[in-house]
Design a protein that fits this description.
The protein is of the alpha+beta class. Among the domains are: 84 residues, conserved putative lor/sdh protein from methanococcus maripaludis s2 fold; 90 residues, Beta Barrel (Elongation Factor Tu (Ef-tu), domain 3); 61 residues, Helix Hairpins (Orthogonal Bundle), CATH 1.10.287. Helices cover 28% and strands 38% of the residues. It has a 6-stranded antiparallel β-barrel. Strands 6-5-3-8 form a 4-stranded antiparallel β-sheet. α3 runs antiparallel to α4. The protein is rod-shaped.
Length: 365
């Protein structure tokens, strides 16, 4: 009896030890395998997401900005031509001088004028004698009416030539018709100038008011027509401008339209012939986005598109319609009112990829 009891006690102890061993092994296995990751899962956890640079863009139909390039030119420019013939006695100004309206630019030799007056008077006297003779013969029936009328015409012409010579003698000075800069004097002192040839004496430009000439696309015409603010700029100088001229027909070669804007230039900060930028703020009939050129891609289906990132950082390509462009970017439709658009790094990601977005602070939107 005692032997049976001892055997039973020994069996119970073995059973308890076995149970405790199993519990210990279970705990150990749990601790080991709960911290272990399968190779596939481990690879996913350690995957590094592609980093892309993006901009947050908001659609707008007012306050939209565009930039064009153009060339300045004087609002008023005139080639001065001779109204009389004669020898240039003196040139009173130099190339590039600023002159006021009425200032003498050059003067003709009065000797030439006096000679012209004498010659014109002599021709008139001769024509007068011929007219008297022709009239006497016509009155007596000794000459035709045609002869008399021809003599009368010659006399009238001689009177006009004398009047012109006398006027030229008084107005032998060439004067500035308006304030401006003398671009170039094209004659020399002592040179004989013929009124008949109409040679250019000098070029005078008025630049207190100036024009900017540019060529724009069809959509660019719409931008100019809907402009609420136009600024002409070069370096650190700018001036407010207004629409002045929009061509109604395109250049047959470039298919662009000539456009001019006008602005005041009282301090003469701008010179004629300078390249400038024209910044335009305008309104559009429907909300559109402005995006940099780096954002444009060609989708797998061949459409012009951009890559966007949703709130879960997932990439998607979106087809767009380009409305206009300037030197830096495009105005496009086809997007939601607010989009996150990839501007750099989009070539390295595909649709449905998850990415890390870095926002670019240099973009305009």
């Amino acid at each position: 009896m005692i032997g049976n009891t001892a055997a039973s006690s020994w069996l119970n102890r073995r059973f308890i030890i076995a149970v405790m061993a199993l519990i210990f092994c279970g705990i150990a296995a749990y601790l080991i395998f709960s911290n272990k990751v399968l190779p596939e899962a481990e690879g996913k956890e350690k995957e590094v997401l592609q980093e892309v640079y993006a901009m947050r863009s908001f659609a707008a139909n007012s306050g939209i900005r565009a930039r064009f390039s153009g060339i300045t030119k004087a609002y008023k420019s005139v080639n001065l031509r001779p109204e009389i013939s004669g020898i240039i006695k003196k040139i009173h100004v130099n190339d590039g001088d600023f002159i006021k309206q009425g200032d003498v630019i050059l003067e003709f030799d009065e000797t030439e004028s006096a000679t012209n007056i004498k010659k014109a008077q002599k021709d008139l006297d001769a024509s007068s004698l011929k007219l008297k003779s022709a009239k006497a013969l016509y009155d007596k029936g000794l000459s035709s009416q045609e002869s008399y009328l021809s003599a009368q015409s010659s006399y009238d012409k001689a009177k006009v030539e004398l009047l012109k010579a006398q006027t030229a003698g008084k107005e032998r000075n060439v004067k500035a018709p308006f304030d401006g800069y003398l671009e170039k004097i094209l004659v020399k002192e002592g040179e004989y100038i013929s009124e008949m040839l109409q040679s250019v004496l000098a070029t005078l430009n008025s630049i207190d008011t100036m024009l900017v000439s540019m060529h724009v696309s069809t959509s660019g015409i719409k931008v100019i027509e809907n402009a609420t603010d136009i600024t002409v700029a070069k370096d650190d100088v700018n001036a407010k401008a207004e629409r002045h001229f929009i061509s109604k027909s395109a250049d047959p070669t470039t298919r662009t339209f000539a456009v001019e804007v006008i602005f005041k230039n009282p301090a003469f900060n701008f010179k004629a012939g300078e390249p400038v930028k024209i910044d335009v703020i305008y309104s559009w009939d429907k909300p559109i986005h402005y995006i940099p050129k780096s954002a444009i891609i060609l989708s797998d289906s061949g459409d012009i598109a951009v890559k966007t990132v949703d709130t879960h950082s997932v990439v998607a390509s979106v087809k767009i319609d380009i409305k206009d462009e300037d030197e830096q970017g495009f105005w496009v439709s086809g997007l939601r009112d607010e989009e996150v658009i990839i501007i750099r790094g989009g070539a390295y990601v595909a649709d449905t990829n998850k990415v890390v977005v870095v926002y670019d602070s240099k973009t305009r939107n």
